[in-house]
Amino acid sequence: MGLPSANRVSVVRSLLPAAVGDLMDVGCGPITPQYPYADKALRVTCIDWKPVIIGSTPPNVVCIKGDFTKMDLSPDRFDAIIAADVFEHVPLEREAAFAEQCTRALKPGGSLILSVPHDGTFALLDPYRVKPALHYALYWLGLYDELHNGFCDIRKGHKHYRIDEIAQTFAPLEIDRSVFWGYFFDPVLSWVKAVCGEKFPGRTLLESACLREFARDYGSRAFNMAVRLRKHPVSPSTGPPRRPTGKRR
């Protein structure tokens, strides 16, 4: 696991509730015996459109193949949902469906832990923005036919989000905690790995710089963001009737 991924896992784990019965991990990526959230819940459902299983899975983890936005999920089923570095890859037309699925699948009082690239100071240095930008230019020239290049929607690219965008998109879920991390060396490390591979001179120094950034909260200037959104514990349709507060005439 690379340093940025390890940092993200650490943040997600810190945002998960202490006791989780049913956990869903959307866009889980490769599942290995070291799957990092197996110990955080009694049961884990991992969903990916192209799941990769390496070795044996932990006994409490099941993996489902499919498009999350089109699945017929039971309502009010999960105590917590993880969507780590997934939402930025969702096509524009499916963003609302993604948010609705998360809201519907969560139990009242449940939590959604969402991590996305953050629209901070050095967002434009993100190397993952280059290919979709090139594909978008080719699309308008009639030289590229797809709106989704298999990595992200080329119209929005590898989008970096503001916290108010996330709050608006995932309403009525409410943000009750947010964590910001990364700054300048985060995108620099990604660039160096993209150009030089996993082994390069000065890697230890660059990773140490990333760790120092990880230990500091850069707030609105940060490169990454994770939020915990909570579903209201009692839905308005099932809650107890309100007593009238007006005076009798």
Topology:
Blueprint lengths: L2 H13 L6 E5 L16 E6 L12 E5 L12 E7 L10 H11 E12 L12 H11 L22 H7 L4 E8 L3 H12 L6 H12 L9 E7 L19
Parallel strand pairs: 1-2, 1-4, 2-3, 4-5
Antiparallel strand pairs: 5-7, 6-7
Helix pairs in contact: 5-6
Overview of the molecule:
The chain is of the alpha/beta class and 249 residues long. It has one domain (3-230): 3-Layer(aba) Sandwich (Rossmann fold). Helices cover 27% and strands 20% of the residues. It is built from six helices and seven strands. The protein has a seven-stranded mixed beta sheet. The protein is globular. The model is unreliable at 236-249 (pLDDT under 50).
Main β-sheet, spatial strand arrangement: 3-2-1-4-5-7-6
The biggest beta sheet reads:
7 strands, mixed
The overall number of domains is 1
Kindly report the name of the CATH homologous superfamily: Vaccinia Virus protein VP39
CATH fold topology: Rossmann fold
Number of DSSP E strands: 7
Shape: globular
Structural class: alpha/beta
Radius of gyration: 20 Å
User: Number of helix segments?
Assistant: 6
Q: Spell the H/E element sequence.
A: HEEEEHEHHEHHE
How far from one another are the termini? 69 Å
CATH structural architecture: 3-Layer(aba) Sandwich
- Highest CATH level, the class: Alpha Beta
Mean of pLDDT: 91
Unreliably modeled segments: 236-249
As a percent range, the share of strand residues is 15-25%
> How much helicity do the residues have?
25-40%
